Amino acid sequence: MKAFTLPDLGEGLAESEIITWHVDIGDVVTLDQVILTVETAKATVDVPAPYSGTITSRHGNEGDIINIGSLLVEIDEHANVTTTHAVTNTASSETAQSPTSSRSQASSKNDKPNSPAVTKDAATVVGNVSQASHNINIDEYWVGSEKSHDEKVVITALPSARVLAQKLGIDLHHIQGSGPDGVILDCDIHQASDQQRPGTEMLRGARRSMAASMAKAHQQIAAVTITEEAILSTWATNEDITTRLVQAIVVACKKEPALNAWFDPDTMTRCVHSMVNIGVAVDSQYGLYVPVIRHADEFHAEDIREWINDTVAGIKARKIGREQLQHGTITLTNFGAIAGIYATPVVSPPQVAIVGAGRIIKKLIMDNGKPKEVNALPLSMTFDHRACTGGEAARFMKALVSALES
C-alpha cells in the first residue's frame, strides 16, 4: 500500500483547491493517469498517478482547500483488475467494523514517521517527496472524554490548524481530520467555518489568490494614477476595442519602455523589457484571471482577437495553465466593458504599470469653431513611482492616446 500526498505544484504555493476527482475508490489506475484536477494561483493543474494499482482510499472533496503534504489517495500496487471487485466486496464488512484498519496496520509496521518505508512510499508528480514533508510537526494533546473520566481522547492537529480554529472559534472536538491518521488540517477548519456561518464563504481559487496579490501590492507599491481621454473620431463603428488597446499599448511601450518593466525593491534594480507581454484582466464567475499574451508586438489584429476568444473560453471551462498567467510585463484592464469611466487600477508586482480603459462616453468638442459630438475613451494608468518618473508616465500616456486616435 502506497500513500500519495499533494506535492509542491510550483512557485512555493502552500495550498490548492480540489476541482474534480477523476477516480473513485476501487478504480484501477495506471502510471501517469490523471486522478484529480486542482487549482492553485489561478491556474488549474492535472495531477497524475505516481504508480499503477487500485485506489483503496480517497481523501478530500471537490471544493476543499488542501495543503502540500495532505494525503490524497492510497494505492495498492498488488491489486489487479481481476481481483479488485472481490477485494472490495470482502473488505466492505471489515471496513464497516473498522474504518481505519488498513491505515492502522500500515502504521504498526512503521511507527516512526521518518522510517525508510514511509519515505519510499511518499511520491509526487515529479518523483519522491523529501523526507521532511512527512516529518509533520503535529500538535497532540489530551482532553477528557464525556464517556468516562478514566478514558482519554487524543486530538491530533497541525499547529497552524489549532491557531486557525482559535481565531474562528471552531471546537476541535467536533472536527474529523482529513490528514494521515485523522490529523486535523487547515482545510478541515476552513470547511467547518463554512458550515458554521451560513451566508459566508471562504475565498478559494482565483479569488483567494487575488486577495493575497492585492494586499501585497497595497503594501509594496508607491502607486500614482494618471488619466487621459482618447478621441475616437476616426474609428469605424465596428472597431474591436480590446484589440485596439493591445496594439496601442505595444506602440506606447516601444516609445516609452520605462513602463514596460519589472522592479525589485530588495535589490533596487529595474529590468526594462524589449518584448511586450501584456496581461489582459478577465472577469469570470470564479474570480479575476490575468492571462498573458506573450510577444504581443508580433501579433496582428486578427491574432489578438483569436487569442482573446480562446483564452476566455479556457477560463470559463477552468482549463487555463499556470504558464499562461506568467511573465507579464504590463497589464490591461478593460473595465469599461462593464461599467465605469475612470479608476485607480492596482499594479501587480513586479510589474510597474497597469492601463485601464473606461466606458466610451459622448463629448462635445469644438471643430473649426463649431460644436461636434464625438466618442471619447477614458484612460487610467497606475504606475509604481519608485520605478517610473511622472514624465515617463505622461509620455507613455501621450503615446497611448496618439496610437488610439490614429
UniProtKB/TrEMBL annotation:
Record domain Peripheral subunit-binding (PSBD): where: 156-193
GO cellular component: cytoplasm
Annotated ranges, domain Lipoyl-binding: 1-76
Entry's EC annotation: 2.3.1.-
Annotated coiled-coil segments of the chain: none
UniProt cofactor(s): (R)-lipoate
Sequence segments annotated as region (Disordered): 86-119
Compositionally biased residues, Low complexity: 86-108
A Pfam cross-reference name: 2-oxoacid_dh
Single GO term (MF): acetyltransferase activity
Sorted UniProt keywords: Acyltransferase, Lipoyl, Transferase
Subunit structure: Forms a 24-polypeptide structural core with octahedral symmetry.
Recorded family membership: Belongs to the 2-oxoacid dehydrogenase family.
The protein's name in its UniProt record: Dihydrolipoamide acetyltransferase component of pyruvate dehydrogenase complex
Species per Swiss-Prot/TrEMBL record: Photobacterium swingsii
